[in-house]
Amino acid sequence: MAVSVRGLYFVVTLFLGSFFGSIFMLGPVLPLMLLSPSWYRWITDRIVATWLTLPVALLELVFGVKVVITGDGFIPGERSVIIMNHRTRLDWMFLWCCLLRYSYLRLEKICLKAALKVVPGFGWAMQVACFIFIKRRWEEDRSHMENMLEYFCDIREPLQLLLFPEGTDLTDYTRARSDDFAEKNGLPKFEYVLHPRTTGFTFIVDTLRKGDNLDAVHDITVAYPKNIPQTERHLILGQFPREIHFHVRRYEASALPTSPSALQAWTQERWAEKEVRLRDFYAAEPRGFDREGMCRVPPCKTELRVALIKAASLFYWSSFIALSFAGLWLWAPLRLYFLVMMGVYFGQQKLIGGLELLELACHRYWKSVTGDEKEKVVDGKKE
After folding, report:
1. What's this protein's family per the entry (predicted)?
2. Nearest CA among 120, 87, 83 for reference residue 269
3. Overall pTM > 0.85
C-alpha cells in the first residue's frame, strides 16, 4: 500500500513539533529542575500540554475525525487514575480528544514502555513530562513507580494517570494469549477486550490513596464504529479513524474496595462489563454506547472554546516549526544552542537514564535539605 501524503503530514508534523519543542521550548526550562523541581514540574506540564492539543487539532480539523463522548464525564481538575481498554496502539493519543473537552491536558501522565523514552523528540518530551516508564518486570517497575507516585504526592501537583491494565493492544495474537490465560484460570473468554493485569493498578491506587492524591477512578471504554487504525503504520497510510467513541464511568476513590484482592476483583468486573458494553456497541445500528449520545457531566469547555483551542494550536505549531527551520538556517548562535541541547538530551540519557530520573534525584536532594533544616529547629544541638 502506498504511503499517504496526509499520513506523512500528520506524523512529520507531530515529530517536528515534539523535536523542536523539546529543544526550543522545554530546553531553556531544564535548569530550573536543579533549583526547584516542583516549579519546574508546574511550568513544563503546561508547556507539554500545548503540544498535546496538536494531535487533536490535526485529527479533528484537518482529517475530520468525529469524537463522541458519553457516560459520567469528568469533574474538571480532579486527581484520578484512568483505566481504558487498549483496542489499538494509538488509544492513548486519541484519548486527548476527550480530555481536551472534559479535563485539562496538563494533568495527564501515562504509564508506557520504557523503550519509548529513547525516541528523539517524542521520548524527550515524555521524559520532561515525567511520564512513568515501565520495563514490564514488576520488581524493577514497582520501585520506580513508587518513587514517581510519591514524588507527585509530595509536590501536590494533581495528575490524571492513564493506565492500560491489559498491557498491550487487542490483536488476534494477544486475544489468543488472553484466551489461554482464561482457560487456565477458569475465566470466561473475551472477544472485545483482553483479561486485565491488576497488580500495577492496585498498587497505583493504594499508593495515591496513602499520599492523599486520588479523587476518583475513571473507567473509559473506547470503540471505533467505522474503521480501526491499529498501528502507527495505518496513520502513515492515511487510514485515520472516522469516528472515536468514549464511554466514561466515574468511581469515587472513597467507594473503591480497600484490600488488594477486592480491588483486583473490582477491576475484573469492570472488564467483564466492557466486554458486554462493546458487544452491544458493535451489534447496534447505528453503533454507539448511548442511543441519545449524551454525557451526564457537561464538558468543562464549550465546543466554541475547544474549536478556538484547536485552531490556535494548529496555527501556533505550524508557525513554530517553520520559524525553527528559518532560525536554524539564518542564525549561527541558534545552531550552536541546538547542538548543545542535542548533546544534553543524548548525554543525560546515557549517563542518567532519563530526565524524569534526574528530576526525582533533585527532588530527593531538596527534600533532604528541607528535612535537615526542620530537624535543626526541633533539636538545636544538631547542626
Report:
1. Belongs to the 1-acyl-sn-glycerol-3-phosphate acyltransferase family.
2. 83
3. yes
